[in-house]
Amino acid sequence: MLLSLEDATVRFGGRAVLDAVGLDVAEHEVVCVLGPSGSGKSTLLRVVAGLQELGAGRVLLDGREQSGVPAHRRGVGLMFQDHQLFPQRDVGGNVAFGLRMHGASKAEQGARVRELLELVGLPGAAGRAVASLSGGEQQRVALARALAPRPRLLMLDEPLGQLDRSLRERLVVELRELFGRLGTTVLAVTHDQGEAFALADRVVVMRDGRIAQSGTPLEVWQRPANEFVARFLGFDNVVEGTVAGAAADTPWGKVPVPEDAPQGTHALLVRPAGVRLVPADEGLRCTVAARTFKGTHVAVHLQPPKAPRLEAACALREAPEVGDTVGVEFDAAEIVVLN
Amino acid sequence: MALPVAFFAVFFAWPVAAIVARGLRTDGRWHLGRIVDVVTQSDIRHVLWFTTWQALASTALTLLIALPGAYVFARFDFPGRQVLRAVVTVPFVLPTVVVGTAFLALVGRGGLLDELWGVRLDTTVWAILLAHVFFNYAVVVRTVGGLWGQLDPRQEEAARMLGASRLRAWRTVTLPALGPAVAAAALMVFLFTFTSFGVVQILGGPTFSTLEVEIYRQTSEIFDLSTAAVLTIVQFVAVGAILAVHAWTVRRRESALRLVDAGGTARRPRGAGQWALLAGVLATVAVLLLLPLAVLVQRSLGGSDFGYYRALTRDDDTFLVPPIEAIGNSLQYALAATAIALVIGALAAAALARRDAGRLVRGFDALLMLPLGVSAVTVGFGFLIALDRPPLDLRSSWILVPLAQALVGAPFVVRTMLPVLRAVDARLREAAAVLGASPWRVWREVDLPLVRRALLVAAGFAFAVSLGEFGATVFIARPDNPTLPVAVARLLGRPGDLNYGQAMALSTILMAVCAVALLVLERLRTDRSGEF
What we know:
The complex is a heterodimer of chains A (339) and B (532).
Chain A: E1 3-12, E2 15-25, E3 30-34, H1 41-49, E4 56-61, E5 64-65, E6 76-79, H2 91-101, H3 106-119, H4 135-147, E7 153-157, H5 165-182, E8 186-190, H6 193-199, E9 202-207, E10 210-215, H7 217-222, H8 227-232, E11 238-244, E12 247-250, E13 253-256, E14 264-270, E15 275-278, E16 284-293, E17 298-303, E18 310-314, E19 325-330, E20 335-338
Chain B: H1 2-24, E1 25-26, E2 29-30, H2 33-39, H3 42-75, H4 81-93, H5 96-107, H6 112-117, H7 125-148, H8 153-161, H9 166-194, H10 198-203, H11 211-221, H12 225-253, H13 271-300, H14 307-312, H15 325-353, H16 359-373, H17 376-386, E3 388-389, E4 392-393, H18 400-423, H19 426-434, H20 439-468, H21 473-476, H22 484-492, H23 497-529
Antiparallel strand pairs in B: 1-2, 3-4
Helix pairs in contact in B: 1-12, 1-15, 1-17, 2-12, 3-7, 3-9, 3-13, 4-7, 4-23, 5-7, 5-13, 7-9, 8-9, 9-12, 11-12, 12-16, 13-23, 15-16, 15-18, 15-20, 16-18, 18-20, 19-20, 20-23, 22-23
């Protein structure tokens, strides 16, 4: 393993910001830590970088214990949330900084700076002032600066956090491609699930300093480990139900569940795609409370009598109007029994 | 951290300890009861009371008059701004004796106001207060204005967009950001006026006497060392208490500020109100700061054909050398002192600015200021009696004078650099560390470029303070190597128009040297700051 955290614990005051976290990152792997703000994900990066001391536990890089190794000797890269470019240096000076610190010659520095600016799509920008860069350009320069000393592990803190949406979507593809090409080992943290899923080989969901779930984007998306992960991923159709056989008893009535579902009382996730609209005299009777256009589909918010709201994903043409009364049936394939 | 601590231990703590021991210890026994005996004397109580209230009044008056000036110099762009900024700093570097004399020439008997309207202030406390404002105007303009010019105006705009009035936005956004700088400036002014020596001695006459004057009087006129020592302890404790309170308030308000290039925040005044403000500040500068200097120059030109100036180049029986040689001495001493103060001060400031600085290190912050608060006379006298025998016999070494001056200059360096260093975003340092920079490299690559401006200002202050330092230097400068202020004082101490005129001429030269040095510094500042 390139990076291993064993029982990493950090306390601020009495509160555990990291609570016995164990995490492994293999070489060439892109791991994305996903979690709401305050879940401890930035602290995780700072611990690995050596900017934050561990209260307990260990950090190992290439199998070597890192306690007592100061930040500048760890050979890891960190791209800060708001980039933290050095304001008094130009773009080239920023990118060359790490190389200078490692004693590279002037010629080496120049060549590497050119190469990296080319790589991040800013050829010839070396002489520009940092203040004249747009947000996206700053992000690229920060990336080039972090990559320049060839860190064995590149860490990204909310890499695309402050950029506008279209730029973010374009950059996330570029980053994924770049890391694949360079074979960079990456540990990124973000609160944006879209970013995490697009970027990562493996997603680690954090909550209150603990790891709530770890898996490929597909695994996490298809089978959220618990109600917290499900809700954090944006699923709101979560209720408590009692599973007996192939159906569960819920406030929404009898709901079919997959065959291998665990029995007993559990939280149940119904994906919006699994909520089918039928004529009002069939299934669960609901009133349409709101609808929002999502580009590929319409999210319809349904209010059943005396039960929590339901969200359904509808094709644009079939979406009912606000105030309509509709019936609802459930699709067992889109239902997950959570632990 | 070790170097500054050692420096202050050897050149400050030890001499002070020596003088205290000399005063309180006789026949191998301590006589601590003397403290009570001395402070309960009614004339000493009177001195204590006067010292405190005149310092408070001077500080309040200085803030009142100088804060608008700080604003104008920070935020308004007008022709001659750079020159004027340097000009207002000149009074600060003048020897206290000269300031006192200049005010005497302005408001005293036979002075300018007396000649014109028959107004005399030299028997009132107003002369002292005005001289203190004259002296400390630059402290506020530099300390507060320097930061003010670098505050991002958009912060205030953001508050205004949230519904705050212009005044409210200033009060809720800018004022809290300026708070530490204002507190630092107020503290400096208070300390300077609390320990005011030359000004009070000349303008106070027999009526008004501060602790410092009293210590000097006890030491050099009455030769009552033990009373002087007791007074030094009292001053020490008072100053220590003030500094502790200050360190506490600064720590509470410490915050990372958004700093921008000062060049971009100044603009032309707009509207009648702002023009009136500018005019008011310029008028204040003219009357309060320039007029006394003008009177000084005018008096130095008395006689015929620069007679006083030509007299300076002649051998003089007061000195073993022509007085003019004091200029070279002063410059050499001041350069050496500046170098020492910068190294010591910058190291200390870097250690203090660390966010993880422990209690002990932060306590040193307050300790560093003590040389300012303790009477300069005590430092000089302490040097004489503590550094005159092995293991450290510096009595005959030229370095003694720069060391004493650096001791007084280093706290300025720390005070000027600390707010800026603390405002450097800690993550910028982390970014450098992660890229492979060792702590020392981080300081050189990240902090230094960002604080270079502050460092230059600090250097200017240290240089100016060294040039004008009088209280300590007068004790330790060798007779054949006088500095400018010492030479001025000696000339003033002798009767006759020629000596008085020569003193004025030498003061004018000192003023000119300081002005030139500061103007060069101002140019340097603008050239370098063009980079960012």
